[in-house]
Amino acid sequence: MRADLAELARRAVDVLPGLKSFTVATNALHPFRLETFLENILPGFKNRGIYFWIHLSLDGPAQIHDQMRGVEGAFHSLERTVLILQRLKESGAHIGWGFNCVITNLNARYIVDTEKIASSMGGEITFNLALPEGGFYRGSGSGKLNAEDRSAVKPLIEQFIRRDSAYYRRFYESVLDVLERRPRRRRCETLEATLYLDPDGSAYPCPYAYDEFRVETYPGGMRDVWKQLAKYRSYIRRRFCPGCSLGCSFGEGISLSELLKIRREGW
User: pLDDT (tens digit, 9 = 90+) per residue, 179-225?
Assistant: First the structure.
């Protein structure tokens, strides 16, 4: 949505000389705007050896995807976006893409179909559970899984745990914990090392705590913002982390012994 996105990306590269990868998450509603952005920056990224990754939202088959996005033709826009990415990759761009699906009461029965669609579009897919308490699924009962939904989703998550790489298995174990109403066992490395910026210029420490804490980033510097948000982290860790199924950290919050086990098993 930002007209200056290419300039922001270039500035990030200029001030981070050790940068090896760059990720943009998109709902893919504006494929040709994305195409213009990529054509402007990919040559420079390739020259610097930076790998560009596109994270695409995929909610389910076409009708379900359009319904959840609230936009008729959203799935068609996603397909056009993937065709653009495929063309750029075939032309030599150092680029890749994958998908994420947030499981809600609308698409819980379509997980298998959604995974097949992602595969047909040339990318892997990860699944998260909707978190209605956060800022993204407001409203009474919005997105919540009922008992039947949970029964349908559980064996599929267990299948991912048995089938996927060790790196993703650790993440799906935490999703299964939340699905079965057990506390999440992994600590969130993202909470300790990240802050999120909103388009209005404010910052918040965690997507799950989106509505809880907000710090203005101007006037002042980001170091001051970081210090202000730091005092909320212990509360967030107690209040939100146990029931969080977001994949912000994936395997990064595992212990050293688990990391060594993953290395032995292979990524």
Answer: 888 887 777 878 887 878 887 888 888 888 888 888 888 777 778 88
Domains of the chain: total: 2
pLDDT in tens, 3-58: 888 998 888 888 888 889 888 889 999 999 999 999 999 999 999 999 999 999 99
Dihedral of the alpha carbons of 18, 21, 27, 32, in degrees to the nearest 10: 90
Chain centre to alpha carbon of residue 87: 24
pTM for this prediction:
0.80
217 with 202: CB under 8 angstroms?
yes
Residue 218 lies in a domain: yes
Q: How far is CA 138 from CA 24, 43, 132, 248, in A?
A: 25, 40, 6, 20
| Closest to 100 in 3D by CA, of 24, 185, 12, 176 | 24
Q: Which residue from 179, 198, 178 is spatially nearest to 188, judged by alpha carbons?
A: 178
Sign (positive/negative) of CA torsion 103, 106, 107, 110?
A: positive
**Domain limits at 5?**
1-130
Same-domain pairing of 122 and 174: no
The overall average pLDDT reported for the chain is: 85
* 163: Cβ contacts below 8 Å, ≥ 6 apart: none
DSSP, residue by residue, 75-99: HHHHHHHHHHHHHHHHTT--EEEEE
